[in-house]
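Hypothesis: this fold can be encoded by more than one sequence.
Test: take the structure tokens below, design a sequence, compare later.
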């Protein structure tokens, strides 16, 4: 019973982190929701694994330990993004988009991989889909960053010009 409840909370937190992170990517709105739901996602899955730890074989324990390390790294990336979070009408920096984007790609990848597992996909397919989604996610993130960051830089330049008058 605990396992299923924790997995449900993990899933709900993951969805909330994915949606709030997508919103936070542009201007930092909903960043706290994104950050806390991401931390909750990792906490709930760690508790679910902990509940079943005694029944897991060694390869499964190693896999979940590695996934736990990835989860900790994702929370660290979110913390790094918090320090760079845009405020007001400022657009995001490239580093901010990279930090938040990494976690969004990882979350989306996890949802796709779990869907393939739930549909009964063989291990090789699960691994292949995970790698493909990560690669495609990287290219999507680069495109999003290239679109958001120049616009943010142009806005900052415009505000500076407005504050100091027209260029001479």
């Amino acid at each position: 019973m605990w396992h299923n409840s924790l997995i449900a909370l993990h899933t709900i937190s993951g969805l909330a982190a994915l949606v709030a992170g997508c919103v936070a990517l542009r201007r930092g709105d909903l960043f706290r929701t994104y950050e806390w739901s991401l931390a909750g996602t990792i906490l709930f899955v760690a508790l679910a694994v902990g509940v079943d730890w005694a029944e897991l074989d060694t390869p499964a324990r190693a896999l979940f330990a590695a996934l736990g390390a990835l989860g900790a790294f994702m929370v660290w990336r979110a913390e790094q993004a918090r320090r760079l979070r845009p405020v007001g009408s400022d657009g995001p920096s490239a580093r901010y988009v990279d930090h938040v984007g990494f976690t969004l790609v990882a979350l989306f990848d996890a949802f796709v991989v779990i869907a393939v597992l739930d549909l009964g996909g063989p291990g090789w397919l699960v691994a292949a889909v995970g790698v493909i989604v990560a690669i495609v996610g990287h290219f999507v993130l680069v495109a999003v960053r290239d679109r958001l960051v120049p616009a943010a830089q142009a806005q900052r330049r415009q505000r500076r010009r407005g504050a100091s008058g027209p260029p001479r």
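The mean pLDDT is 90. Residues 123-164 form the longest helix (42 residues).
Hypothesis status: open.
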